[in-house]
Design goal:
The chain is an alpha/beta fold. It has one domain: Alpha-Beta Barrel (TIM Barrel), CATH 3.20.20. It has 12 helices and 21 strands. An 8-stranded parallel sheet has the order 5-8-9-10-11-12-13-14, with helices on both faces. It has a 7-stranded mixed sheet with strand order 3-2-1-4-19-20-21. A 4-stranded antiparallel sheet has the order 15-16-17-18, with no helix packed on it.
Length: 384
């Protein structure tokens, strides 16, 4: 049994005492208002993490210690649930990565508590320059359900999201099968037509991966696949709000159109969380990470080389740029992605919900994370 006190963010001058039992919120009781208390919010849920603190999910399976390190570092930035993202590779390598990761994770039950599932981004994407992004054209291929079932077997059912492009003839049947199996299908890295996107949604696709990115530099005014995804009312949209991947006006438009179906993600790469400087990477070659958190090709600041900020940092950018309030940003990075994925965390701060909590406060003019709880346990004691 644990009791956590704090103020409700956006709830006026309201202090509460939250009682936690067996990892769940058992009781929420109003107490006398105390302005010195930090704000309590739900923990962050990041649907797309490619790596962090120089640990990459896409080279080799992680060791148990690497899993502990990346989970600990993400949790310090408020992430209490995340989806490790494995990108396009050969099917043999993907099998090896999933199988090796499961071997490590079975040794780390404390880490498994943080993982909502794997996000497989590719290899069933567009092979066109622009939409393909940094994905290796050599391994881009048409959707193959039997092949995916083999990957899912190696992942022991933990692939919960697959991002694909519905421009392939085989896409409709694949999406239907994936949706029936409980895997969320996202549209991304696509050059699809209006009809192909419509059929993908009808087949069971539920959201767009980093909408507005992974696209051609120039598009027809209309129709184009960004308008098409915006117009599909059933489609949710994940966006990177780090201040670099999408202009403020684009974020505002997506927010206005999608409303409660716009979710914030980090899409962080391995250099996220690292000190500023020049680095050599497997994808992108020589890159520069600036003090402000912008990752670009060395000598060419105009070309981004991935996202290098945590979800918490993107949330702060979202607020600082006036796109929404902190309570709005937290909601889009916690409760709403949980709702999209059907997680119990979608209940947020309510009785019976998992006690995945943050305590945050304004300090020196900015928002800071004071402490993080996973199932009611402080992160420091959960991951010693």
């Amino acid at each position: 049994m644990r009791v956590i006190q704090g103020n409700l963010l956006g709830g006026g001058n309201r202090s509460v005492e939250i009682t936690v039992a067996d990892g769940l919120i058992k009781e929420i009781v109003a107490i006398e208002y105390d302005s010195s208390l930090s704000y309590i919010t739900p923990g962050l849920v990041d649907l797309q993490v490619n790596g962090y603190m120089n640990i990459d999910f896409n080279n080799e399976p992680l060791s148990p210690e690497e899993w502990r390190t990346i989970t600990r570092e993400l949790s310090k930035n408020g992430v209490t649930t995340f989806y490790p993202t494995i990108i396009t590779n050969s099917i043999i390598n993907l099998q090896r990565i999933f199988e090796g990761n499961l071997e490590s994770l079975k040794k780390e039950p404390d880490v498994l508590k943080y993982i909502g599932g794997f996000h497989l981004e590719g290899p069933y994407l567009s092979d066109e320059d622009g939409p393909r992004g940094a994905h290796d054209r050599e391994f881009i291929k048409k959707p193959d359900w039997e092949e995916f079932k083999l990957l899912q077997q190696k992942a022991e059912g933990l692939i919960k999201i697959i991002t694909l492009s519905p421009e392939w003839e085989e896409s409709e049947a694949f999406i239907q099968n994936a949706a029936k199996s409980g895997v969320k299908v996202a549209i991304g890295h696509t050059a699809s037509t209006t009809d192909q996107i419509k059929k993908a949604v009808q087949s069971g696709a539920t959201f767009s991966t980093h909408l507005g990115n992974g696209a051609h530099l120039q598009l027809p005014r209309h129709p184009n696949y960004i308008w098409d995804q915006l117009a599909e009312e059933k489609l949710w949209a994940t966006v990177i709000a780090d201040g670099y991947h999408l202009p403020e006006n684009v974020l505002r438009v997506i927010k206005e159109v999608k409303k409660d179906k716009m979710v914030l993600i980090s899409d962080s790469v391995a250099l996220a969380g690292m000190p500023a400087g020049d680095y050599q990477t497997a994808v992108g070659g020589e890159v520069t990470l600036t003090q402000e958190g912008r990752l670009h090709l060395k000598g060419n600041p105009a070309l981004l080389a991935g996202a290098a900020q945590s979800l918490w940092e993107s949330i702060q950018q979202y607020v600082d740029n006036g796109i929404g309030s902190m309570i709005d940003a937290i909601r889009r990075g916690s409760v709403l992605p949980s709702d999209l994925m059907g997680l119990p965390q979608k209940e947020g701060l309510s009785i019976g919900a998992p006690a995945d909590l943050l305590k945050i406060r304004v300090d020196d003019g900015g928002w800071k994370i004071e402490s993080v709880y996973k199932y009611g346990e402080r992160v420091s004691s959960c991951l010693p």
